[in-house]
Amino acid sequence: MQCTLCKVGETNHGLTTVVLHRGDTSLIIKQVPADICTNCGEYYLSESIASRVLHLSEEAVAKGTEVEILRFAA
């Protein structure tokens, strides 16, 4: 797929790190499966992966977490 951000690169399947901030919570999720642009590094998550990432972020906020680093579990 062509990158929708830079319009130059093609995406390849790989693993990326997703960093999310909400209020006082910062969440870092490592080794998230994604399609990653070979030119600019922009990543695209599938609907199911994005849903799981969102769920992890909601859990972190609900716990009152300030900073959390997780490894994505397949």
Give the helix/strand layout:
Blueprint: E1 11-22, E2 25-37, E3 43-44, H1 47-63, E4 67-71
Parallel strand pairs: 2-4
Antiparallel strand pairs: 1-2, 2-3
Task: Describe it.
With 74 residues, the protein is α+β, with helices and mostly antiparallel strands. The chain has a single domain, classed as Roll (Ubiquitin-like (UB roll)), CATH 3.10.20. It is built from 1 helix and 4 strands, in the order βββαβ. Strands 1, 2, 3 and 4 form a 4-stranded mixed β-sheet that branches. β1 (11-22) and β2 form a beta hairpin. The longest helix is centred in the C-terminal third of the chain and has 17 residues, at 47-63. The chain is elongated and about 40 Å long. The mean pLDDT is 96.
Short note summarizing the structure:
It is built from 1 helix and 4 strands, in the order E-E-E-H-E. The protein is of the alpha+beta class and about 70 residues long. Strands 1, 2, 3 and 4 form a 4-stranded mixed beta sheet that branches.
